[in-house]
Amino acid sequence: MEPIRCTWCGNDPLYVRYHDEEWGQPCYDDRKLFEMICLEGAQAGLSWITILRKREGYRAAFYDFDPEKMAVMTEAEILQLKEDARIVRHEGKIRAFVSNAQAYLAMKERGETLTDFVWKHVGHQPQVSHFWEMRDFPATTPASDSLSKALKKAGFKFVGSTTIYAFMQAAGLVEDHIEGCFRKPSAT
């Protein structure tokens, strides 16, 4: 018998694996959080499955999300990526990845970690929801508003509150598996 899952992942094997193994798992790794912020920004206006299918392409195009290499990408590299079918070829989003790498490195230079920076917006504890239907979830919360504003102030791009709430769900800052989903902590 198939376990009960959040309905958003449907039956696409890639989506199901992402739901079962990654989504909502608390992440405390700066580089992984950086990648997740970038990819959520790339998703803005698109479906997540589009980005998930291109994730390996993004990793190849952006040096496996190495901020030091991304921060110094040349104009020629950026323009070349506009022709790269492995990623979404939106120039603003491509440039945002470079800006985000620069913001990440500036944060690191100030002695801050991205992990502490994002997790302090939820009191360093995953916020657990208790919704039965996906339609009941908010698009934004006061915490996503606050984190979005802080990331923008730090120089990050494509980090609006809706995008950041999706990031918070993916990175486990909020625990938004629906009630009854086998991944819900109370279900295990």
Question: What's the N-to-C terminus distance?
Answer: 16 Å
Mean pLDDT, all residues: 95
Radius of gyration: 17 Å
Task: Show unreliable segments.
Answer: none
Based on CA inertia axes, which overall geometry fits? globular
How does this structure look, described?
By secondary structure, the chain is mainly α. It is 51% helix and 2% strand. It contains 9 helices and 2 strands, in the order αααααααβααβ. Strands 1-2 form a two-stranded parallel ribbon. The longest helix has 19 residues, at 91-109.
Topology:
Elements: H1 13-21, H2 30-43, H3 48-61, H4 67-70, H5 75-81, H6 91-109, H7 114-119, E1 127-128, H8 142-153, H9 161-170, E2 174-175
Summarize the structure.
The chain has 188 residues and is mostly helical. It has nine helices and two strands.
Write out key terms for the chains shown.
9 helices; single chain; 188 residues; globular; mainly alpha; two-stranded parallel sheet
